[in-house]
Amino acid sequence: MSMEILQEIRVLSAVLPSVATVERHNESVTPFERQLGWKPGKADESLISANRVFIKNGYLLPRAAIEYLRDLQMDRILVCGTQTDTCVIAAGFALFDSGLHPTLLKWLTVGSSLDRSGDLGARLWEHHFGSVLRHSNQLGLLESQSLHARRMSRVNELESDATV
Question: Does 153 have pLDDT greater than 70?
Answer without folding.
Answer: no
